[in-house]
Structure to design on (323 residues):
């Protein structure tokens, strides 16, 4: 704005002459061209520029948001709106350093700020106008829906007689844990006593190794990707150490082998044979009658396999190596 002021000649702190407004002493004119002036009063028309020191006001449509991808906000001034973590200091350096997202804003026009990828919690918004004034923070809270539903767990058999694996199915991606009976439903406890664990895919069969376990009851737990834990599933192991007559009644040779193995029994009869890999996949299952049976394992991958031979009188289990 233009206004008329009377100025008087004075000396500044450095003994240099200045013109100081009589009406408003804060208005001063310093120029080497006035150094020859001794003392006088001058009337000058000056333009006084008002500096904007008023911070913008910021408002959000919602302060509580449930599973939404954006928040709608409005500033009273043209400028920038910043999304920052809670407790970010109200200074531009801190705000820019912590900014999660920022958008340009026009005065009194709503804009959307993305909340994609944010977790549940409290966040702040700041608005800055073109002059650099910063609003007070506007707080809002995000609530993201959390998967609280535990997976269901199933076993294909709840009683196993001289088996090497138990097969289980979880309804969710995650892990299946083999633990002693009465292990509490707590992840720290489960991990602390876990005898074996395998990754699981939703509704796919997973094989858990039970070789080396004694007769008795055991539990399985399933955990999904969100940390939810199923109810336990109990199963029973029986027949360990009973009638395993591989050395006396049956010979399996040669092992290691590249192609053929021979199963030879002491007495003729009806027998079933099952060959399983160490990850629980059944590679062969068949019956034979007689004393000798030959099996071609040429197509098998190199590794160790478990072979089980059953009759009406006994179950014999051993290992073969495919080269």
């Amino acid at each position: 704005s233009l206004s008329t002021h009377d100025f008087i000649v004075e000396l500044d702190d450095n003994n240099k002459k200045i013109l100081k407004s009589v009406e408003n002493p804060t208005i001063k004119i310093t120029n080497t061209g006035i150094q020859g002036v001794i003392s006088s009063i001058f009337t000058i028309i000056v333009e006084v520029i008002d500096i904007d020191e008023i911070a913008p006001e910021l408002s959000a449509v919602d302060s509580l948001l449930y599973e939404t991808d954006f928040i709608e906000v409005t500033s009273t001034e043209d400028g920038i709106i910043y999304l920052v973590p809670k407790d970010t200091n109200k200074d531009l350096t801190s705000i820019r350093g912590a900014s999660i997202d920022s958008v340009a804003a026009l005065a009194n026009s709503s804009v959307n700020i993305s909340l994609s990828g944010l977790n549940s919690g409290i966040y702040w918004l700041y608005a800055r106008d073109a002059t650099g004034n910063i609003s007070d923070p506007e707080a809002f809270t995000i609530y993201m829906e959390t998967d609280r539903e535990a997976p269901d767990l199933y076993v294909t058999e709840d009683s196993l007689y001289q088996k090497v694996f138990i097969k289980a199915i979880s309804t969710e991606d995650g892990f299946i844990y083999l633990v002693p009976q009465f292990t509490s439903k707590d992840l720290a406890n489960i991990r602390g006593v876990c005898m074996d664990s395998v990754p699981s895919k939703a509704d796919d069969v997973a094989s858990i190794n039970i070789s080396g376990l004694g007769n008795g009851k055991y539990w399985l737990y399933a955990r999904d990707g969100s940390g939810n834990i199923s109810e336990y599933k109990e199963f029973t192991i029986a027949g360990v150490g009973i009638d395993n007559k591989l050395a006396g009644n049956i010979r399996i040779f040669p092992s290691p082998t590249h192609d053929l193995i021979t199963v030879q029994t002491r007495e003729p009869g009806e027998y079933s044979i099952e060959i399983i890999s160490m990850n629980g996949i059944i590679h062969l299952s068949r019956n034979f009658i007689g004393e000798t049976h030959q099996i071609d394992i040429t197509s098998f991958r190199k590794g160790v396999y478990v072979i089980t031979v059953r009759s009406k009188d006994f179950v014999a289990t051993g290992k073969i190596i495919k080269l």
Q: What stands out?
A: The radius of gyration is 41 Å. The chain has four domains: 2-47, 58-143, 153-238, 246-322. Residues 153 and 170 are 5 Å apart (CA to CA). The chain has a mean pLDDT of 81.
